[in-house]
Structure formats: structure tokens, C-alpha cells
Amino acid sequence: MERIKVESVSYSYQNKYQTVEAVRDVTCSFETGRLYVITGESGSGKSTFLSLLAGLDCPGSGRILVDGDDISHTDRDAYRREKVAVIYQAFHLFPLLTALENVMYPLEIRGMPGKEARRQAEACLEEAGVSRKLFGQYPKMMSGGEQQRTAVARAIASGGKILLADEPTGSLDSENEEKIVDLLLSLAHERDYTVIMVTHNREIAERADVRLVMKDGRMTMEQ
């Protein structure tokens, strides 16, 4: 089932020296239950495109429809709370919160009572493969792989079924890299998530259901 439809989207921004056309007339769609990988050289527009899907920026032209709604014309704060979650290479966990508290956070800001938030956060951490002995540890006490699995658990807890991952394995070793990709594939295939990942790693790209390539802001499907 089609979840996201991108129609003739372009986006540009002004840096110190020039106007950068980061995304140029991109048209594509993303379905539930699939893992998509976007590859391309640095500066090709991958991360900018992901930020548009996340509702962090609005297209200069064209539109992005999620479940039939143009996200530029909706409450984008609510969209990011309820429908989409982003995972980054740098994890972006709250350093003064434990693993459990990090995952409880999106549940609590939606108004969920503390006991229920704790129960659901524990279930999300277990689903993401985080050992219970880590629930009370702070991010700096955890390995990179453990932190990234915690970040995935927090994304699951957000409740949205669109998961955007910007180089999520870029700072991990090969063993943890494989575990994170296995987890993302599982969320897509078994839980009907729409997972869209930006990566430079060709081995990861080979495991995707659909491979897309960006070059000079334009998107093509890899054959």
C-alpha cells in the first residue's frame, strides 16, 4: 500500500556564496512493508530529501503526500509526533536520561501515564534487542550499537509507522551494522513500517527492497 507520494518536489537554499538546488523535480512513492535505501555522493541531496519527508522543511515546489494529505498544509509538529520518526548516525539520545527514560520520552509528551509509558518503553527496548540490564544506563555507558538500538526503540515508541534513517550505521562496526539493518528489515517486513534509509554503504544497499540513487538533486531507481 502506498504510504508516501512525492510529486515534482524541488527545494533550494542559499548558502554564503550561492543558491544550492538541493532537490530537483523528484517524483517517487514509498509503500508500507518495504525498506528503501537512498545512495549517492556527498552533496547529492539525500539528507535534504530526508528532511523534507520528515517535515523539517517544506518543498519550494511540488508536494509530499502522506496518507493522502499534503504535509506542508498540515500541523507538521503533530506529523512528526504521530507519523514519522528519524534515526541519526549520532544517535541523538538525551545524555542525562537513561535508556528507558529516553524511550519513555515520546510516550510521555503524548500524555501517556507514567506506568503505561514505562511498560510500553520496556516492550520497545526488548523489541529493538536492548538487554534489560541496560535499561537504567545512560548513553555514555553504552556501546554505539546499544545506543543505536535504543534510538530505534525510541522511534518505535513514537507510534509512527514511517521510519527515516540518516546513515544509521555510519559509526558502527560491521557486526552491529548488520544487527541494525536486520532490525530495520524486520520492522518493515513484519510490522508494516515504511523504512527509508540514507547510506553510503553498498553492502547495506544490496539488502534493501528498493534502491534509489540521488545525483545532483535528482532521483532515479537503481536497476
Description of the structure:
The protein has 223 residues and is of the alpha/beta class. 35% of the residues lie in helices and 29% in strands. The protein contains seven helices and ten strands. The strands form two sheets. The chain has a six-stranded mixed beta sheet, with helices on both faces. A four-stranded antiparallel beta sheet has the order 2-1-4-5, with helices on one face. β1 and β2 (19-31) form a beta hairpin. α3 (99-109) crosses α4 (114-127), α4 (114-127) packs across α5 (144-157) and α5 packs parallel to α6. The longest helix is centred in the C-terminal third of the chain and has 18 residues, at 174-191. It is globular. It starts with a strand and ends with a strand.
Short description:
The chain is of the alpha/beta class and 223 residues long. The chain contains 7 helices and 10 strands.
